[in-house]
């Protein structure tokens, strides 16, 4: 029957014009259409509650185990050893910040021994290292030891325009304002042994910061030191060439600009030998400060911080308590929903009734 | 030189200049000059010039527009980049971006890395550019295809017609078009192969009318056998887009007479030649100057209502943005000044804050604008465009919308409106019905017959005349497949023609034993087969005159001579013939026939009245002379013929009535019932009379009337019952229960419709108010009637249907259109009968300004084009009435039924999807901006973004955009099956419940919550141990925002499928991989922002993971809770 054959062929042809009837093209792949109601949400709240509270407790305990001792040495704590009744801050202010140095000694006691690795930080408060202009005032290419003029971002500390006209090395406001107090600790009369190595990111030291070739010439003659610096970059840690110039770890730490106006930066690590084999023993200590860095002009504060650490980092109970709080809220929600669920179960859920249709029939005209 | 005669013409477009002297111009073959008011086409065969192609090239260079090459492309290779860029910068969004990029280059303001800031705009420009390029290539290809079609052109050197491409034709060429070929340009007919000097044209491509049009050779060429070898010149209108008018004057170089030519002599580009073997013609307008192409250039752009919402919310966002910027700038100034004159010692303040305070304030405000720019999600317009095109693509692939063709879409900006249609204005014929006629019955001499066996055996002259009229009074022609079998008794030629009624009636006559078996222009042979099928008698009728159908007379007639008798057979609308019946007709017969007409109409049949008369020779001779004068008249040709026709079409003898059914399309009753349940009001606009319209409406379940029980419940109605469309209410109800509807919907459908007839209301009004019918008080009558109806509707509990006819409608439209529409808008359905195309258009235009909801117009014919164009959303049904509606429509579907899926499923989906996309974009951008803003509180309001510039720019445009776009394409707030089963759920989108005024604010509050959690949890978790640096902290924030936003999409969508999950995972992977690579590679990419190894170090911290887990869950908890409470208590979709 030729006629039928033809129609079949036509049929085939028509079919081929249609979109291919595959599961993918016709969207018949598995899909899940969850309708989140109080019922389905109940287990979710329960699970959140049951997991968050224990997590919170663990985090709080971890944080509590971290020991920390902060010493604010901005003003009254730090009385000048040379001028009577003068804080070091006042001494600097009196000298109009022209490079005056001041030394002070602060006695304090540790009630508990700080076991394990102990870290020493300096902290600055109310110091906007994240200010837009400040954050950009650097030249990463220069810090890589590359030749070439300092980037314009370094303005107004790009080059010594009033004097020699040479570029600053390192240039920029961040480098210029490098923290330059010297902090050392005495346990009784014994110097607490510390190291200034390993305090910066290892990747920073290895990759991001490189001294140029012929570094001593570069820092001393072809470039100027930043205006606020007392020493050139090549004099930062002369005995240790690996830790000198741009690769000085104190400098690298400072150059990683802090995200918050209250910040601390790692200053030294405890070198665990002899007396300090197990960390810092409890007892009386003396902090010797060489006070160079002025902060009073912007109501800033300076701190010296001794801290141990944990797998969660330093001391911070905030996150743990947050977990506990949200966990409790979820448990309460669970209970409330559970009760409501029990009471509502009798009534059918409100459906879209005829009444609403009729209301909508007279579609309002304006 | 020429003596110019200025002939003022009535035509609006141009003044004609008749050039008496053709010598000069005729020196150039095929030259034409298009000066301001003079358009000439000269033709001269003798001048011997270069061969065709060479000439053509030259000509094209000189007068580019006059070749027949069409070009619809917008660009060429050279102009693409500048022109496309120029066009793209007309968009506010792009200007906004460009201005911000420009500001970023100002050193004082600079907030982002300069090069990175270019990325989003470049990406947008490139994507849009590629899209435009692809579209233009498509146009270029179709142009090339059209331009390369072949036709025959007269070659002067060889003096023959040679093959030639369309694009190589030019004004003044003579072309030969053969049967079934398309006319390549607007040409003036010069000669025709038919001896009547006419030709038939199928103009469906131009005006959508399917009946053939007759075109005639201008009188001056009638006696010229080879017009291609004469010299002449044509003066005519400038090229214009008016396809119905043309005026010209022809001058021959051999004499000085001027001969007129008009629209009857012009073949327009795009028409198809039918029947006639070939015609020759001279090209008058070519290429882009042809009337069709000029008239098709008007395109109006439509905008969906959701864009209004977007604009409103964009405004809100702008206000928030400005507020944040001014706040930030003010605080920044205050803080920097608070240090007093000590600022000079402060390491982080590098500029003097006391200099130029205003400048400082504004630069810092502008910097914040750059930083917070995504608060105003201008890119939303771009993503909307892309999403809509893809949405349309998905709709096009829906198998449920596909019958012979898949849905085609011409407007990509109104997808969401499909979910908000409150009113459907529907045509009847061809839209609700199949426009496929089925012969149902005849009523001859007061007796109904539905097939041949019912005919009486004995010869009845009335039946004879009736059937003869059906057989010959038409314009059908026939195709003889096996002419040699013509002698056989059962020979059945295949009837062809463009009037569907004619065809079906002609075929019906043939089935009744009166068979037209051959037809030429002069004679018709009709074979009469006796009732026993054994004997035949062929009678030849000589055609004396054919008075064709026209829409004002609404009838056609034919005058034939046989056996020395002259008969006039006529068929037409009842109203057009009844007044012309002779008094000798039996009054009872007349009444019975009218009654039958009513019956047929009630069953939804279309009926035509058939009559005849015998004409004496003298009468005919007298009349024919008048007729010929009329036919030769140059002015008012058609009116003159109509006048003449009216004079002969009198004293008619009634023969009978035919009934033809135009079946409803499959699925129409269910579709309409479903749409009604969905709360959509359907207005039926038909040219048919009230009874037919009502019965169709009833059958289509548009109304649910108390059914009159037919006493003659004979075979007629039983056949109609057996067909898919039901016409009785009992049947209707059973069908409704058979449909898979929810109970509420079924109850709703079973309600009886309360009918209000405008006419009777008007009459009652008149009786009450006791006024006389006067035109002067029409206005008052109209408005009072409308008020009356309004009262009626408000007290009525049942669904209401208003019925209005065209005559009343014209009064209404003249005096009280808005009031009427407002009142009618409260009715469930409105049926408008005897409505003209103009009235349809006007109704839609007024309704658009009155109704709050969107209006969809659906139709298939040229008479629906106005309505389709004016409506918010025009849908064309691909039918038998040509392509004009399809060209005008925003969407073109195969059947009315498609509306179901298109509106209830895809429309609702599109609306919810798009509104989710919009709200999410606002929320997500606001969250992002607020996180950055919070950071300003802790960096002295200085404008540090803390996020790396790359994240700042790519976060909203690349990293997080994908899942929501996937959701905008694949999310389904309800399943398709459910949308169709519970159509009342359409109310959800109809009333815009997924995007309400407060939706924006809810989302903004959510954004505030999320950003607060993200920022402050991160901040306080790291604050105490705050040796964290800016870039690490920025990465923390980015990571938290990323995870929160991605998971947010999963919570927000109502359906989680592979696309959303896949795109979420993909986005996350893109983000992580990008970050890891960037952080590994970028040691010194920019002078100050080098996140070398930042992410690696961050991932190694335990704190990081605990912080993120906490943020992820806490940030999403409120939305989750609110959603489950909402779903439990009052979600309309449950």
Automatic annotation (TrEMBL), chain A:
Top-level taxon: Eukaryota
Keywords annotated in UniProt: Membrane, Transmembrane, Transmembrane helix
UniProt membrane topology term: Multi-pass membrane protein
Listed Acidic residues bias regions: 1-11
Keyword Transmembrane on entry: yes
GO cellular component: endoplasmic reticulum; Golgi apparatus; plasma membrane
Disordered, as annotated region: 1-21
Transmembrane regions: 41-61, 318-340
Subcellular location: Membrane
PANTHER family the record matches: CDC50, ISOFORM A, CELL CYCLE CONTROL PROTEIN 50
Similarity section: Belongs to the CDC50/LEM3 family.
Name of protein: Cell cycle control protein 50A
Origin species: Rotaria sordida
TrEMBL record, chain B:
One annotated Gene Ontology cellular component of this protein: plasma membrane
Cofactor(s) this protein requires: Mg(2+)
Chain coiled-coil ranges: 620-647
EC category name: translocase
PROSITE patterns, per database record: ATPASE_E1_E2
Catalytic residues (UniProt): 427
Compartments reported by the entry: Membrane
Membrane topology type: Multi-pass membrane protein
Catalytic activity: ATP + H2O + phospholipidSide 1 = ADP + phosphate + phospholipidSide 2
Domain P-type ATPase C-terminal stretches: 887-1130
Positions bound to Mg(2+): 427, 429, 860, 864
Positions with a binding annotation for ATP: 427-429, 549, 571, 606, 686-688, 834, 840, 863-864
EC number: 7.6.2.1
GO MF terms, alphabetically ordered: ATP binding; ATP hydrolysis activity; ATPase-coupled intramembrane lipid transporter activity; magnesium ion binding
GO biological process: phospholipid translocation
UniProt family annotation: Belongs to the cation transport ATPase (P-type) (TC 3.A.3) family. Type IV subfamily.
Protein name listed in UniProt: Phospholipid-transporting ATPase
Organism: Rotaria sordida
